[in-house]
Design brief:
By secondary structure, the protein is of the alpha+beta class. Helix content is about 15%, strand content about 35%. It has helices at about 70-90, 100-115, 195-215, and strands at about 5, 10-15, 40-50, 95-100, 125-130, 135-140, 145-155, 165-175, 180-185, 220-225, 235, 240-250, 250-255, 270, 275, 280-285, 290-295, 325-329. The two termini are about 35 Å apart.
Length: about 325
Amino acid sequence: MSTDKIKLKPIFILLGIFLLSPLISCNILNGNEDFNNSNISIISWNLQTFFDSVTEGTEYSEFKGSSSKWTKEKYEERITRLCDFIESQDADIYAFSELENANILQDISNNLNSKSIKGGKYKYACFGKNQGGVFGCGIISKYPLENLKLHNIDFRYYENQPELRPILEVTAYDKNQEKFSLFVCHWKSKSGGEKETEIWRDLQESLLANCVSKAKNNRIVVCGDFNRDLNEFQKNSTNDKILLRSFEGENQVYEELVNPWLLSTEKGSYNFNGEWNKIDHFFLSSNINFLKFSTIKDFTNDKGYPEEYSVRTGRGYSDHLPILCQFSF
């Protein structure tokens, strides 16, 4: 295995090692695509502790052991409901976080193919997480995915670095075979204290900015759960774009991207103690034509909040709302 090392201060970045879903063959399995519509739509969703039904030992306590209410039947029901959602929305690409493994993407594919989606509409998928990690990120797509990479942080200044999920990068294509760089993120949560964990989100932002910088001659789409509210990012006051911060040596540099929340009247995608937060994001490079952004409110409770999943009852979906972004080239 070979890796590139990017010299940052004070972080050390490893690029390279990645895991592939069994679906990442990047071959069209059958059928022809409809290239009449030039728009492309992506739905990004934190699926909230989406474990499969096989115990590996890294599961959260409520998903394993003799006292657990988690069953194969509940897993299969979650897969069925997720596939119902995928089929009803019919987005071109779905980017998911908090997936346990690539087998879940395979089960999604098998379930979709057994439903009314004939010929396997979502022919491409990829998944990545760190060895020994609990969760990773995954993508399913109607159009080809290539050149999968995972980008990681190894920060030796702290002895007890928490589990940090890698940034998933892939080359994706639209209906007309125009390519773009797609990044899927799931940053460190604020559990353990907002101030105490801020260093890890700062490092993940710096890593993302460096990845974007290396790909900035391409079209760039970034999405995922950043566990950082819109107002916690630095904004360019002259044009209302977000500035991702990166550290190169002694200097701080910025990568400027469009964030659709700045153009939206939506309240947020995550609700904590009755307060809405905008922590699930899309970021787009300026060479992409932004068309539409919205939260998908199909899965809310009687208060209008996201209906989080309960292992005990088997009800609910996720404590995050899905977010949709549509754009063209």
